[in-house]
């Protein structure tokens, strides 16, 4: 997975495709490996983190019926946290665009999801003056 940091988009696409392909035969193993990789590389630049997250999303979508409930629950929490972190990182440069997207998740009469609120809070802290 270290090749996700390669600047060549073709290499990045190949890594994504390889993770998705491996995820077809061993979805839980790939999801756990991606999760562990993201935990070990918490300073990974967001474009490279997105590649791993997108692969995780594809593996989950394509294999949702095969996933153990505990794995699915853990992966969803970790995936949401990682996605929130990506939005906060992008927001350090493009705060208006990110805020615009996050605010679309607020619907009248509906309590926002925990990670929407956490992203909103982390955006305000990371961009506070």
Automatic annotation (TrEMBL):
InterPro entries assigned: Maestro_heat-like_prot, MROH2B-like_N_HEAT
Organism: Fregata magnificens (Magnificent frigatebird)
Domain of life: Eukaryota
Residue intervals of the MROH2B-like N-terminal HEAT-repeats domain: 19-127
Database matches in Pfam families: HEAT_MROH2B_1st
Name of the protein this chain belongs to: MROH1 protein
Gene: Mroh1_1
CC annotations in GO: cytoplasm
